Structures are given as structure tokens and as C-alpha cells.
């Protein structure tokens, strides 16, 4: 969901210097950007409003109770165990695929990204297919690691490609043994990528529902859903949402603190040498074990379980009318959501490239902040606001699309911004000199030329929407049933075979989009 | 003026198309109803498909859970898009009725169901029933080691030995019955013991699956999960046997699934037709012959032959229309179960 | 005393030979420059000495210790050889002080004190110690890089085109500062550069490299005045190469009869003169006469091509721009000093 924010930290360094001469201000761009930001910040506002409306005494009672404490312990342990394991795994894999002569490095590199094509709750489904008793913290950590480590692998491997190998040579000449070079020179330069990826994973851990619900591991998100199913948008759910949002803020603050202000740009004009490739020698086959084991757990298990259920279910599970309808509804909602998200990102993307003022940076920050909020909080806010204030929007496609815009806008923003930055501003000025209004000039030049970036933005947002379960479940219009919802309903009735076709379809449709993500990360790193 | 900006126009057009799409489908067709369905999706689908075929009335179903919908309907008030509300248990019905949001059910329809399966005020009606059971691992527990009463499960000797799905409306209905039968103090005590003793699973089928896999010795669930699985492959219930508490024990509670028509409905005629159909021959036959294994409640309607007859269950007398779920969730929240 | 001895070093990248049997002796305390066009293999040679790459064949002995011999290889971090590279290669995530202290094994206080001393040594303000590298100018970065390498008190310092990224003005000043520091510290230095003037000015031994081999090794004056072949001559500066008949230390050439630096040779050969040996005067006088075929004015000098009288040979050289000379004018060409003879 928050893929954008980590990718942006890579993208920002590659965006060319912004031209000093700026086109005339167009106030409507700013107006729309502000309006979208306000809508995006709605969930946060809701949480604050709910707290105030609840009253301090009740709020206090509902927050400082045993259950919240248990959930907090679960959440902290989950984050504390999962992120370091993911980081170690991602750094090891990235080093092996980028810096060693590991046989088939490119294949392993792709296989390390491919688990993203499998929705987190399908990972869970696959694991309990093999180990039905799997539950609790250990299960949660294990599945989270295989489902989310690619979020760290992507930026870390890109960072490895961008590192200047001359620095490592230099460190060796200053008397550092290879491991010390890694620790004192390589790792510090991976810090940005590590922080960004870790934050992304942390926020996913807080927001995920299906993965943990399936293996009976309670987090704030599952507890909110439980409350929602018992009381709709009751006060207890609102207070859990408040605590969840505070957890997100803690993660955001930690990341900002650890990342620091500085970028480690390459110094001097020299051209980076090709990276140093370490020869593994007789360790080669031992090292192959790591990507092999990772792929076995992250791809092999889903493939095995899915295959098993598909075979066991036979032709009977392919109820084409239901599957076809769910597929059609999913594709329609993905397309509408993807286009709306990208359209909503156009004004701020243009502003942040062409008019990089403090105000536009602040606005952009609002989008990232809003999209860090878990889907369950966004949905809870929109349910409450639409049912109480904006009734005409209640249970409409517009509401769920708004939720998707809030959740996935950074994905579209990153793609758009990179492509707008590549369109020279002179083209817009030329169009203006030929008599077009600023808006028209923008449409006729930059928007047209940035179309590939916009298409990528639509694709990335759609990928998120396709596999989104929490908010979709809570906000979907009457009669809507997406692949994810159908899958979830069937697994709830422990009809694992019946759920298999839906899981398969989600994976198949996610593959090309995951490939896009993979190739985009290669491009960002200049390869 | 040619200089009008195309981009905002485009965005506006998109916004409009989204809004146009967003009007609920049911509102556009006169002869159609929207159901908030908390019953099992499969059962409701069987009902809806047969009903539409017979009457031509189009039905849009939104799936969810009992109390989610009950609270939702209360919040939606007069603007609820729902025409019919179907539940698995009575407390959700009582909640909506308490706010005066139900339209009385037609007398013809009420007459199809015996009095013990509907509230006296006739604001909603029973459409099916389910019995509380203790599903246990027959390889581990013999008959003499089974709990005599559901209340025993809160005793220390059952620590770590049983499971339930506390977030579900099913279990909350059972607690509601306990509350009505034994009072607040005893219920709070029992919930406290339960928190110590039980393992939480999500969903009754999952809890039964855990019993079957030997992860826990027993689970407090409803009867039909067992029969449903037995009718399929039995892979999740091969080691499972059902224990009926009987003796008017709180654990012998029979829960009534309800159906009601919203006062705010603009399709009351079609909604009445639906409830009449569900509680009549056609709807009750689906219970008897289908794969739901819930008890039929229509006068003179037989349940599935595989089930222990409803009359033999020695269920305690519980007034369905006053089951208080708000109190139950508060108490369960206080006990740390939610 | 020889500090560094390279013997028959070879290094191939695929089918391309970057180094094709290179040998070199570097005396302790000396300054050696390796100069050659880009792609000649000079940087590869430096990387082999530093230990960043491994040669296919050959040996490196440093201070009596074998660093490389066949498959045997001492890793870079155990060689104790300092290097300053083209762009300084400062660690972007560390401050200036941390950069300088990076290779030192000492307590924090000792590190800080030595960092401050080293800043004085390389002529930088101590106030810069707390800055990050991206807050320094290119010349300052190079000085910090030098300080960082000096901090380990290496016996040999490798300089990999360390001045080439600097502006022309800064370049000479930085070079002078670096040379002074290294001389004062008595550190043997190996400089790699493509700039022949820099090499000649810096070193007391110059190795001219071409296509993976040393064309010539010698003192700056020697390689400049007595290059081994016309290509080496041309690489190190403007050269006027003429055919001549040589006997008894004299050459008969289009510029008249000139003394040559090889008394023994007899026969026809090519001789070389540097432009500074030639004077051009308008009208009559002592020397060979010629006609100005082309002339273009370049401020203080003018670039002229002079057709030599009685031959079809012309020479091209820069002359001081004095009185107006024009194409077609007659000039007299005088030569001072000995011509250099290329033996064939």
C-alpha cells in the first residue's frame, strides 16, 4: 500500500535538478492539490474527532485496559522480530545478487521480488494449508517475513547498484578487512534504503488484517475488525484506531530520526566504476542455499498449497459465473481506482516538480502521511463520515475510490513525478508562447509526454487495490464482491479448495504488475 | 473560450462518472430489494436464487455479520439502503427492534411460524434455528469426562482445553442467553474464567477444525458446522463428536435466526414477499434438503433427517426479543475477550 | 635503495591486454610519475599495486616483502600503501574528522588530535573538521583525502590523477602543496597522470606508458630531451621530427647541418628538435631560409607553418607574436643545441 514512500527516497536522488525559471502559477492546480490533501487527511481528522467525541474518561477506560496492552505487546513483538529478520535477509540476498558471482543472480533477483505478487493473506492461507496448527507470534513473524521482505530487498539492491565501489577500495587501502569495509562503509550507505524499506514493512505489519486473522494472531487491526463486526463503528473500535494511528506515528518518527537529514550523494564528477563482484569460490553452492530456501518458502509454499487445492478441488471449484463476476467487478474497481488515484496525483506531482516550494513539499508530506494510515482506519473514518455527514456518498463506489486514493496515491505520485521531471519545462513555455493557457499548455505538453509514467502509476495503484481486503470489505457498495472478498469469505468457511481459484487469479493478475515494479527499480538505479 | 483548461474538466468528468456508477444498483430497478445478510452466504444465496426465480424480484445481497449490520442499520436510520435484514442469531434483531426500526411482519407470514420462534410483538420473525453444542475430540474425551454444564468450562480443570470464537455473533448470542438465564454477576464470573481457560479462534468452523486436528479438546460452537463438514468430505470433523448439554442448561441454548423488514424500506411489498417465502414451504425446504443443516422453524416443516430433533434438545426457555447484545459486548470487552 | 619493485606484470580484461609485461623500480623517498594517454593501463597498474585487482602474472615486492607473486596476493588492507584518487573518494556519510580518522587505530582523543595536526599539514582550517565532504570544494576534498591517507603513515603513496578534476589555477597550487607535504614527510610517491607537464614537473622518475607497456623510463629531462621514439617525443611535448643523414655526430637535415647527441651513428635517421631550440627571424641572417606558408595569430604566440627552402618539407611551430609576419614572407630559421637522434 505504501510502496511509494520507499521508492520515492530512491527516486528523489535521480530526479534532475529543477529548472529555476518557473511557469506562471495556476491557482486551480494548487486548489485541487489542497482539496485532495484535505480528503486524504480525513482519517486522521476522524481519529482526533472520535477521541474528543468519546470524552476523555471513556477514552481513557477503553485505551488503558488489558486487551489493548496484550495487543500492544503483540504488535511490538511482531515489529521487533520481523523487521530485523527482513533486513538481514534483504541485505544478504541483495549482496549475493548484486555483488557476488552467484550463479543465476538475475533470476534470484527477480524471485526475491516475485513474492509481492502473492497477497499477504494468500501467503497465510498457503502456510496453514501445510501446517494447520500454525498460529501466534512465531507464525505471524515467519509469514510476515516471506510476504514483506521484498519491500526491503528492492530498495537495498537498488542502493547496492548505486554505491561507488571506489569507496570500498579506498577503505581497504586504509587498512580495513573486507567485513569491516562492509560494516563501516557499505552498511552506512544502505541506511536510507534500509530505513525506507523497514518503515514500509512496519506500516504493513500494522495495517495487515487477513494474514494475521487467518493464523489467529491478534493485532490492533484484527481487533478493530472484530469490534467492527460486533458493534459496527463503536467507540471501542475508534479508540483502538487511535492507538493504531499512534503506533504508525511512532514508526514514522523512528524512521525520520534514524534516516537523518542528509543524503549520501556521490561526491565529485567521476563516473562510478562497475561494482566489485566478489568471487564466492567454493562457497558458491553453500550461498545458493539462501535464495533457494527463501524462494521455497516465499514462492514454493504458495505454489504447493495452491496446486494441491486446485487439484483436490478439480473442476467443481471453478464456478465460472461467480468467479467471472468477481473478476469483472475487481477489474472495474481496480481500473476506476487506479485512474482516479493517478488523476488525483497529477496536481501535486506537477507542483512538486515545477514549483518546489515549501508549501508543495508540505502538501506532498500530507499525502505520504495520510497513506501511512492503515486501511482499517481509513475505512472506519469513511464509513462514519459518510453515514453521518455525507449520506449521498454512503456505500457508493465514490467512497471506496476515495479510500483507494488516500491509500495508494504515493504509488502514482512517484511514477508521475519521475516522468514529469523528464519533460523539459521549455515545452510548456513554448506551448504558452503559442497562445495556450497554462492549464492547456500543461495538458498539451507535459501531461501527454508523462503518459508512460501515468500508466505505470495506474498499474501500481491497481495492484494495491486488487489485493486490498480490509477497506474493501468495509466500504464495498452493496452487491460488490471482489476476488479478495470472495477468497476471504470462502476461507472463513474453511472451503480452502473453493478459495483456490480466487487466490490463483489474484496471483496471476499481480505478476505483470510486480514485474513492472521490479524493472522500475532497476531503471531507477540506472540499469 | 478556447483557453478553458481541459485537465480540470477531465477530472470533473471522471468524478461525475464515478458518482453515476455509485448509485446502488437496487435503487434503479423498481422490483428489487436489498438484503443485509448475516446468515451464511451459501444459505442466503440458495434462498435468493429460488425466490428470484419464482417471483422475478431482483435481490442485491450485502454480506456481513449480525451486529455489524444491526449497529449499521441503527446509524443509517431512515436512510438505510437495506429492505430486509437476515441474521444468524436474535440479539441483532432485538437491537434493531429496540430502536423501532422494523416494520411489523405480515400476519400471514407470522402464522407460518410457531410462537416460540418469533417475538410476541411480531416485528421480526424466526427463519431458522441452531443449537449450541460442545464439539469435542472423541479420541481424547470419553462421555464421562465431558462437562455436565457449559458453566463447568469456566472451572480451573478446563484451563487450556477448549476453544471458541468470541468475536462472532454466534458466541455472543450464547453469552446473551447466559446473561438472561443466570444474571450479570454469574455471567461476568463465567467470562472471567473463560478468558483464563479458552483459546480464541476466528470462526466456528476454524474452532472445529482445531478440535479435529487435536489442537484443543473441545469447542463451544453450533451444531451445523459438524453436519455440514460431514456431508462434504468430513476432513475437518473426522475425529469430532457433538455433546448436547440438554437439561435446560445455558449450553443447550437454541438460537433463533431472524428476518425483519426495515421501516425505512421503499420496497416493503417485495420485502414482505421475501420473508413470507423464506418462512414458507419453499424457504424451509431449502433448510431440510440443502447443505445448511440449520433447523427448520416453519409450522409442520421437518428439519434435515441427520439432525437430533429440535424437540429432544431440552433447550432452556430464552426470550429472544430481549437478548441484550450491547451489554454482552461491553461485558466481553471488559473481560478482555474483545 | 629500491622500495617498490614491479616485475613482468600482466593483466588482461577479456581479450584486451591492459598490462603487457610491466617492470619498474621505485627508489625509496623518490617521486615517480607514470604518464600515458587514457586507456594505456596506468590506472590498472596503480590498482594492482594498491591491491584492488590481481595481476594475471608477475610480481610486486614492496620494502622487501612480496605483495604479489603468481597466485599469492596480500590483500589491500594489509599492504600499508596509501592512495588518493581522482575525486578524493571521501566517505559521504562521515565528517572530515571521521574521514581522516577512518584508518587510524587509536583512541578517539588521539584520533582527533592527529586529525587536527593533519589538517594543519595539508593546509586546511581545523574548523572544517566537523563538516561533511559535500560542504567542501574539490581542492579541499583532495587535501582531506591526502590527510586521510597520511594518517596511516604509509611508506608509499599512490596518487591516481588526483589533480585532474580541479580547475587549472587550483591544480598547480594543490599539486605544489601535495608535493611539499609528501617531500617533508619523506614518503615515496607514485603518481599516475595523463598530463605530461604535470608528470615532468612532479617527478624525479618518469615512466611513459603506451598500450600496456613502458615506452621509456627515466628522469624528466632525459625522457623529454632524449625520447626513445617519435611517438614518445610527441606525447611529451611539441616535437619537430626531420629526416637526416648522420655521420660523426653531425646530421645533414632540411634545417642545415646540426650537431646530434649520438656520435657513433652513421647513416640515415630521424632527428628531433624541440620548438624552444628553434628561432625564427624575419629577413636575412644566419641559418636556413624558409617561406611562411600559413600563419594564424593566437595572442602571445602565432602558429606558423614554414616551407623550408629547396625542399618539399615544412615545419609547424608556435613563435612569439612580434612584428607583423604574413603568409609569403621570407624568414630565417636558426637552431640552438643538439638535435636528438632516433636510432632505427
From TrEMBL, chain A:
PROSITE patterns: ABC_TM1 (PS50928). GO terms for biological process: transmembrane transport. The chain crosses the membrane at residues 28-51, 71-95, 107-128, 134-154, 192-215, 235-254, 283-306, 326-353, 365-387, 393-414, 441-465, 499-518. One of its GO terms (cellular component) is plasma membrane. The keyword Mitochondrion does not apply. Keywords: Cell inner membrane, Cell membrane, Membrane, Transmembrane, Transmembrane helix, Transport. Its main location: membrane. CDD domains: TM_PBP2 (cd06261). It is a multi-pass membrane protein. It is found in: Cell inner membrane; Cell membrane. The keyword Membrane applies. Residues 72-253, 327-517 form the ABC transmembrane type-1 domain. Belongs to the binding-protein-dependent transport system permease family. This is Iron(III) transport system permease protein.
TrEMBL record, chain B:
It holds the Pfam family SBP_bac_6. Belongs to the bacterial solute-binding protein 1 family. The keyword Lipid biosynthesis does not apply. InterPro entries: Ferric-bd. One of its GO terms (cellular component) is outer membrane-bounded periplasmic space. Transmembrane segments: none annotated. Residues 1-27 form the signal peptide. One of its GO terms (molecular function) is metal ion binding. This is Iron(III) transport system substrate-binding protein. The keyword Signal applies. Keywords: Iron, Metal-binding, Signal. Fe cation binds at residues 40, 88, 224-225. Gene3D superfamilies: Periplasmic binding protein-like II (3.40.190.10).
TrEMBL record, chain C:
GO terms for molecular function: ABC-type ferric iron transporter activity; ATP binding; ATP hydrolysis activity. Residues 4-236 form the ABC transporter domain. The keyword Cell membrane applies. Keywords: ATP-binding, Cell membrane, Ion transport, Iron, Iron transport, Membrane, Nucleotide-binding, Transport. InterPro entries: AAA+_ATPase, ABC_SmlMolc_Importer, ABC_transporter-like_ATP-bd, ABC_transporter-like_CS, ABC_transpr_FbpC, Mo/tungstate-bd_C_term_dom, P-loop_NTPase, Transp-assoc_OB_typ2. GO terms for biological process: quaternary ammonium group transport. GO terms for cellular component: ATP-binding cassette (ABC) transporter complex. It comes from the Bacteria. The keyword Iron applies. Pfam families: ABC_tran, TOBE_2. Belongs to the ABC transporter superfamily. This is Iron(III) transport system ATP-binding protein.
